[in-house]
Each structure stands twice: as C-alpha cells, then as structure tokens.
C-alpha cells in the first residue's frame, strides 16, 4: 500500500479555507451524511438507524420492485451506458420511448429528457432567450432558473414571491420594449412547500403576450391527476409554453425533462447546451423512469397515502407549537414542511441533535435560504407508517424542548 500524505491547501486556494473557517464560526458548516442501504422511510446513515424525513422519494419509487426489474432487464439487453451524447450516437430507442411516455402523460406534443432537473432549467432558459429579451422571475425560484437566466444574458426582473400584481407592474414597464418576455415560476417552491400562482400568471402571459414557463420539479408525482403536476392541477396544460419536470424526486431515478410544443423540443435538441454536450442516460435509468410513469397511472393510492401522511404530520406539528410557515414565511401547502428556527447555528445544532436521537431531518441555512430564515426541512412520503410519523414527532418535540426551541 502506498504511503498516505496529509492533504494541504496551496496558497492559491487559501481564500477557500478562510471561507470554510467562516462557516465553522457561524455554526453552519456540515459534512455529508452517507446512506448505507436503500433510500427508505427508515434507513442507515453514518452507521445509525434513522427515520428519514430528508428524502425527495415522495412515493417510495427509489426501491420499487417493478423499477428494479426494469433497470435490470434494460441493463441486460442494452448494457450499462449509451456511449455518446444524444446528437452523435447516444440516442437509444429507449430514450425516445421515455420522451414519448412523458409527453403522453403530460398531454403535450413532445418532450426532451436532460441529465438533471438543474440542466433542464438552466439549458432551456439560456437557449430560448437572448440579450434583447426579458425574464420575469419569482424571487424564490430555484437556483437552476436563476443560473439559466444569467446564462441567457437576458434582462432579469424579479417579482415579489407569488405577487401577481407586482409581476404585472413589471410586464407593463417593459411591454413596449423590443424582445421577448418570459415569466417563470416554480410549481411548488422547494424550501417553503407553497404552490405557485400558475393560473394567474398564465392570465398575465395571455394578456401581455409573454412566454409562460413552470418548473414542476416538486409538483411532479405530488399535484395534479395521478401526479401530473401543478400545471395540470390548475388546468393550464394548454396555456403553459414550457413545462419542466424532474425524474429525480417522485419518479425515483435521475434526470429532468422539458415538455411543450414539437418546435420547442426540436429547438432544444439543436441549441440546449447540456443536451448537446452531455452523454445521455444509461438505458437502465430510462427504463426505470418508464416503469415509474406506468406506476403513477396504476397505483394512485400512493399519492393518496402521501397526502394523508402530510396532513397528519403538519397538524401534529402545529399542535406541538412548531412554526411551519404562514407567519414570516409562506405556509406549506405540500409534503415539503419547514420547521422555522431562524438562527443558522441553532438550526444546525437542532438537526445534529435530532440525528443523534434517530431522526434524519436536514438543517437549511444561508445561503440556501435568507439570513434569519433557517429551518429544518422535513419531507413526508407515502411510505412512512403512522408509527414512524408518531416516533418522529416525539423526537422532534422532546429535542426541541431540550434545546429550548419550543
């Protein structure tokens, strides 16, 4: 075995060490927790059995037998990789089948699959607009939307969270300016769990001739008929020009996608840089996702369990005295349930104490959320049992009282 050496930071990167020291001083430095078995409602992180309230595995599909079978069968038939980007030699029949499956599920003309939800957002926004155009974005939109907007070089205008009147003010200001106007909102906001005003923003886009785009990452598999998302929830399928979704959360695998008109998708095939310059999904991932969309149609009871668990969990948190939004932050309307603490250090200490007691509940602090709005973000799934939820509530309550949070 070769001798090990102590890693050191060269002077050229000393500024990174200084910033890490600042995180430690603030109490918000963290280490990655390592999952040692499958993603489930109870699993093992860092050698400890915990109730898992930190996963995006809303419907328990990460380890569903039918998805496992689909992945294994595709691997045996097609191998483990595609070998190229989609535009050269890496488009396999199974990739096209997945895109056709999603388009049919969403009720649109076409779909393109990206390597991640982040790539889908950033690649789409940056490719369909240019420096002469305008983007109107909710102030709490996901980082991938923000980065895509910056990459597009379009002029960015930010409207107050879910403030449709403010969005209209901004549209009025620029309605006579040359260039296209794009309005973007999350369908479900990832930190507070509230639902975007999709229908009202569609009204604005119709009125001012703007392009309407919705990121439905946390709404996919959660809202709408059989989990078709917030766009379907509001009956706006034919009014939203660009629908973005994810294959990495409720669908249980990996990737992102964009749905819309045939011309939109053909254009993204030609111009979306993440699509053009990234190797396509392994066939096992595509097969897994196809199986997941079949399950959304055949097992709607999973979504019903998800919402039943969510309502119970949130009701019990309120009874216990936790702030889960609605005062200084938006109220959660979905399985994403923030427990507002405020102070970053106190939040991270609370999260670590919960873990020691057998509960995986992640602390979220600045810069992911604004200063003073740190929280424990809990996510309910369809697979949590009532006994597990009650045990999680007991751990949350007793630990919060011990730390004088309650």
UniProtKB/TrEMBL annotation:
Pathway(s) annotated for this protein in UniProt: Cofactor biosynthesis; biotin biosynthesis
Alphabetically ordered keywords of this record: Acyltransferase, Biotin biosynthesis, Pyridoxal phosphate, Transferase
EC code(s) of this entry: 2.3.1.47
Catalysed reaction, written as an equation: 6-carboxyhexanoyl-[ACP] + L-alanine + H(+) = (8S)-8-amino-7-oxononanoate + holo-[ACP] + CO2
Names of required cofactors: pyridoxal 5'-phosphate
One annotated GO biological process: biotin biosynthetic process
N6-(pyridoxal phosphate)lysine sites (modified residues): 249
Pfam families assigned to the protein according to its UniProt record, in alphabetical order: Aminotran_1_2
Recorded GO MF terms: 8-amino-7-oxononanoate synthase activity; pyridoxal phosphate binding
InterPro entries per record: Aminotrans_II_pyridoxalP_BS, Aminotransferase_I/II_large, AON_synthase_class-II, AONS_Archaea/Proteobacteria, PyrdxlP-dep_Trfase, PyrdxlP-dep_Trfase_major, PyrdxlP-dep_Trfase_small
Primary role: Catalyzes the decarboxylative condensation of pimeloyl-[acyl-carrier protein] and L-alanine to produce 8-amino-7-oxononanoate (AON), [acyl-carrier protein], and carbon dioxide.
The family this protein is said to belong to: Belongs to the class-II pyridoxal-phosphate-dependent aminotransferase family. BioF subfamily.
Protein name: 8-amino-7-ketopelargonate synthase
